[in-house]
Design a protein that fits this description.
Order of helices and strands: EHEEEHEHEHEHEEHHEEEEEEH
Structural class: alpha/beta
Shape: elongated
Number of helices: 8
Strand content: 25-35%
Length: 310
């Protein structure tokens, strides 16, 4: 099939690579979000998908909105058979969905209908799910509600951050998306409607969502830290400034600290929660690089009974 691939962040690159490597399909063009300011200089930078496509000599389309008439005209001109999508980042209007004969097929990082939305991996980790996966489905106007072509499952390990899990799913999902394109092309794969029950939503995780509530149980604190790593980053307040929590782990045998109460030893930093303590392993003070929590504690000289949080 002739394909137009839509995607933007680094997590979409493995799928693009898998389709470029396929001897059955041609990636005729790539659709991605416009260049965005990045770094301290805030200079405009192309998306990872745009950079990879340029390296491969593939045409790159960067519409401000996918309903822009210039973009739609070029899409019709290319006349793709199918448009595979991975984390493109913009809603596709019906006028765009109607262009490819076999539709737009999305690789979504959950076992649909669970965790429909922008942040399925983060929500799965924060909810304490033991298993997640990826699904390929035909895009329709509803939110991730289209019929499903294929799925794969992936265990969520006890120490997984959302970044760890998303990396594994990106590579496994690349194979799933390529196999879905093959099945659609040869007629062996047919989409099946999602069940009406079991729907959960996964909206974007905001900075406010990532603030740690020290009155919550330690397992909840652990899940928030892992689910918000690397982005947007779990955080708390220390002496009125934000302190990012990069890595922490529950300590089941320590229950002597009040919620948010700090206790620092030579090589360990503990914080009380609504149940047992958690040990801070890596933190990032405001305006600084990540550091070992013990080194941070020595530098700030924690006072006995001092608290984290508002």
């Amino acid at each position: 099939m002739k394909l137009v691939f839509a995607g933007t962040p680094e997590v979409a690159v493995p799928a693009l690579d898998a389709l470029i490597a396929s001897d059955r399909h041609e990636v005729a063009a790539v659709v991605t979000r416009p260049d965005a300011p990045a770094g301290r200089g805030r200079r405009l930078v192309a998306s990872p998908v745009a950079e990879r496509a340029a390296e491969a000599g593939i045409e790159v389309l960067k519409p401000v909105k996918p309903r822009d008439e210039e973009f739609l005209a070029r899409l019709r001109e290319i006349a793709p058979d199918c448009c595979p999508v991975v984390a493109y980042g913009a809603l596709l209007p019906e006028v765009a969905l109607d262009v490819p004969a076999r539709g737009w097929v999305n690789l979504h990082f959950s076992l649909l209908p669970a965790w429909r939305g922008a942040a399925p991996v983060q929500h799965a980790v924060m909810a304490g799910d033991e298993v997640t996966g990826a699904s390929t489905f035909l895009i329709e106007q509803g939110l991730d509600s289209g019929p499903v072509y294929g799925v794969l499952t992936e265990e969520i390990r006890p120490t997984d951050t959302s970044g760890d899990l998303l990396t594994r799913l990106a590579f496994a999902g690349a194979g799933l998306l390529a196999a879905t394109m093959d099945g659609i092309e040869d007629g062996t794969l047919h989409a099946v409607q999602q069940p009406h029950g079991g729907v959960t939503l996964a909206p974007k995780i905001t900075v406010e969502d990532a603030q740690v509530n020290w009155s919550a149980p330690a397992l909840r604190v652990d899940r928030v830290v892992r689910g918000c790593t690397p982005a947007p980053g779990a955080w708390t307040l220390f002496r009125g400034e934000r302190l990012k929590l990069v890595q922490a782990t529950p300590v089941l045998d320590r229950t002597d600290l009040a919620p948010g109460e700090l206790s620092a030893a030579k090589n360990n930093v503990y914080v009380g929660t609504g149940s047992h303590a958690v040990e801070l392993l890596w933190v990032q003070p405001q305006g600084k690089k990540p550091m070992k929590a013990a080194d941070w504690a020595r530098g700030v000289r924690i006072v006995h009974g001092e608290l984290l949080g508002s």
